[in-house]
Design brief:
Largest sheet: 8 strands, mixed
Pfam family, one: ILV_EDD_C
Low-confidence stretches: none
Strand content: 5-15%
Strand order of the largest sheet: 9-10-14-13-12-11-15-16
Number of helices: 22
Radius of gyration: 24 Å
Distance between the termini: 39 Å
Number of domains: 2
Shape: globular
Mean pLDDT: 94
Helix content: 25-40%
CATH topology of the largest domain: Rossmann fold
Catalytic activity: 6-phospho-D-gluconate = 2-dehydro-3-deoxy-6-phospho-D-gluconate + H2O
Function: Catalyzes the dehydration of 6-phospho-D-gluconate to 2-dehydro-3-deoxy-6-phospho-D-gluconate.
CATH class of the largest domain: Alpha Beta
Number of strands: 16
CATH superfamily of the largest domain: Response regulator
Domain Dihydroxy-acid/6-phosphogluconate dehydratase N-terminal: 69-381
Keywords: 4Fe-4S, Carbohydrate metabolism, Gluconate utilization, Iron, Iron-sulfur, Lyase, Metal-binding
């Protein structure tokens, strides 16, 4: 299948822009791939340390150099629902490896924090930085150079991007990402949101709120709304790093286990020891990156990926820009409505046809590159399927994706999209650059021109709300929330409050150098504003009462102040020491000092 001319044009400009960094990257991974793992040339003492804890059969295999050894990088912990199912995976993977005469070892663990637990708390200030810590941690595990391929066990917000950065840094190794799957459906997300808003208004108490939250987040697996975690799974599949059809199968089911074992066998079959050597650095090329961005737009995915996809691409020597992301949004139809961009959850999306249906529709319109190299083989069309359990109860069979959606209100065709574009846009103007997700914002709320109300912390806005000071039209400017200030936390405590005011008929919007993520909702929010306030960006010069215009339709973010007068203002500086200590924040001072711009991925690797 041939890609649409516009897709080809954007891909080609990314390729041309990236050539000075992509070509040295490819040369590096090819050289390392030709060397192979050092296992066979380690000293006897080195190698003995590497398999000391193994059983006799695995030791015998690891003493030679012709048996593939699979490295497992795991984000398992048993506090977080999305990662708790991974407790069983290493044994499943080791068993599957032994069945084909190979070995598998847990190379290392990486931290996995939950934004849901830390939301609105000081720990959230470590969240974005944890992505780069995860990449570093995975690199430590793989640095033993004992492995012919790797599987990556991770699900949530920063974990998968961090693992992807590591996988591409070790791009000579084949890589397959193995998800745990979403939890079964609980309390509908719109009902959960309704209770949150009632709580914000003081109409229900904490007991009722906790009951609703517990009914929504109720078991093992990923949260079921379409936030960053589930956007991650979509990305890994559409970029060819999953086995086909594996993204949204519930945990602890026979099919989930069968897919995990299958992923193991596939990873072992694509090492340099065989005839299908497929290093991760060749799977993730400019075409795969464009496919990922298109998938993000077609599903109304997380705004966090305007940071993560840039950083992931950079790890493969590819220079992706916010403008590329915005231009791809303009030509990608919205085909899925999953909360907060609809009432359904990811289980409903999967039941309606899921990734296979979506990929087939996009391929049919030339909006994806089919001529890509994936971990499964050549061609993305192999992912236009649905997976099920075979009659033997232990293996996987695949069928063509259904021709019709199981629920057109959740998943539609490219001929009848919910919107002609993806709804993720870049705002530009005299306040810098920002990201906005308008797919969940009603058209009448996408333009706001109102006086600025300045807050230097999200808790300040809540105090003003509780005091009744915000029942008016205004643009909430919440600044000093960028990566250099405090790690760029998500600011979801603001969503119910601003939603209440919007429901009262007030014209409200948010402008911030912080994040809102995949749960960005019905209130227009210009997020990731760059340059940030700590870097003395224009957002640091806004004053209470300044007129601010946010135009989500035309992609502009402006302060309506005389240009000369605005330029003459001194940037606001505030004491940020309260962000610098407690809950480990003091350990992250080097990250805050050296992190790069939001539009460059807010990464310490691209500072």
């Amino acid at each position: 299948m041939t890609a649409d001319r516009r897709i080809e044009e954007i891909t080609n400009r990314i390729r041309e822009r990236s050539a000075p960094t992509r070509e040295p990257y490819l040369a590096r991974i090819r050289a390392k791939g030709a060397e192979g793992p050092k296992r066979s040339t380690l000293t006897c003492g080195n190698l003995a340390h590497g398999f000391a804890a193994c059983g006799p059969v695995d030791k015998d295999r690891l003493m030679g150099d012709q048996t593939a050894n699979l490295g497992i990088i795991t984000a398992y912990n048993d506090m977080l629902s999305a990662h708790q199912p991974f407790e069983r995976f290493p044994e499943l993977i080791r068993d599957a490896a032994r069945e084909v005469g190979a070995t598998a070892q847990v190379a290392g663990g990486v931290p996995a924090m939950c934004d849901g637990v830390t939301q609105g708390q000081a720990g959230m200030e470590l969240s974005l930085f944890s992505r780069d810590v995860i990449a570093l941690s995975a690199a430590v595990g793989l640095s033993h150079d004992m492995f012919d391929a790797a599987v990556y066990l991770g699900v949530c917000d920063k974990i998968v991007p961090g693992l992807a950065i590591a996988a591409l840094s070790f791009g000579h190794l084949p890589a397959i990402f193995v998800p745990a799957g979403p939890m079964t459906s609980g309390l509908p997300n719109d009902e959960k949101s309704r209770i949150r808003q009632l709580y914000a208004e003081g109409k229900v108490g904490r007991d009722e709120l906790l009951k609703a939250e517990s009914a929504s987040y109720h078991g093992p697996g990923t949260c079921t709304f379409y936030g960053t975690a589930n956007s991650n799974q979509m990305l890994m599949e559409i970029m060819g790093l999953h086995t086909p059809g594996s993204s949204f199968i519930n945990p602890n089911t026979p099919l989930r286990d069968a897919l995990t074992k299958e992923a193991t066998r596939r990873a072992l079959s694509i090492t340099a020891l065989g005839n299908e050597y497929t290093p991760a650095g060749l799977v993730v090329d400019e075409r795969a990156v464009v496919n990922g961005v298109v998938g993000l737009h077609a599903t109304g995915g997380s705004t966090n990926h305007t940071l993560h996809l840039v950083a992931i691409a950079a790890a493969a020597g590819i220079k992706l820009t916010w403008q590329d992301i915005s231009d791809l949004s303009d030509i990608t139809p919205l085909l899925a409505r999953v909360y907060p961009n609809g009432l359904a959850d990811v289980n409903h999306f999967h039941a309606a046809g899921g990734m296979g249906f979506l990929i087939r529709e996009l391929l049919g319109r030339g909006l994806l590159h089919d001529d890509v190299r994936t971990a499964w083989g050549t061609g993305l069309n192999a992912y236009a399927i649905e997976a099920s359990l075979a009659a033997d109860g232990v293996s996987v069979v695949r069928h063509p994706a259904p021709k019709e959606s199981g629920d057109p209100k959740v998943l539609t065709t490219a001929d009848k999209p919910f919107s002609s574009n993806g709804g993720l846009r870049i705002l530009t103007g005299n306040l810098g650059k920002a990201v906005i997700k308008v797919s969940a914002v009603k058209p009448e709320n996408r333009f706001v021109e109102a006086p600025a109300k300045i807050f230097n912390d999200q808790n300040e806005l809540k105090v003003a709300f509780d005091a009744g000071e915000l029942d008016k039209d205004f643009v909430a400017v919440v600044r000093f929330q960028g990566p250099k200030s405090n790690g760029m936390p998500e600011l979801h405590k603001l969503t119910p409050l601003l939603g209440v005011l919007q429901d009262r008929g007030r014209k409200v919007a948010l402008v911030t150098d912080g994040r809102m993520s995949g749960a960005s909702g019905k209130v227009p929010a210009a997020i990731h504003v760059t340059p940030e306030a700590k870097a003395e960006g224009p957002i640091s010069k806004i004053r209470d009462g300044d007129m601010v215009r946010l135009d989500g339709e035309n992609g502009t973010l402006e302060i309506l102040v005389d240009a000369d007068e605005f330029a003459s203002r001194e940037p606001m500086k505030i004491d940020l020491s309260h962000y610098e200590v407690g809950l480990g924040r003091e350990l992250f001072a080097p990250f805050r000092a050296h992190v790069g711009l939001a539009e460059d991925g807010a990464s310490i690797f691209a500072a």
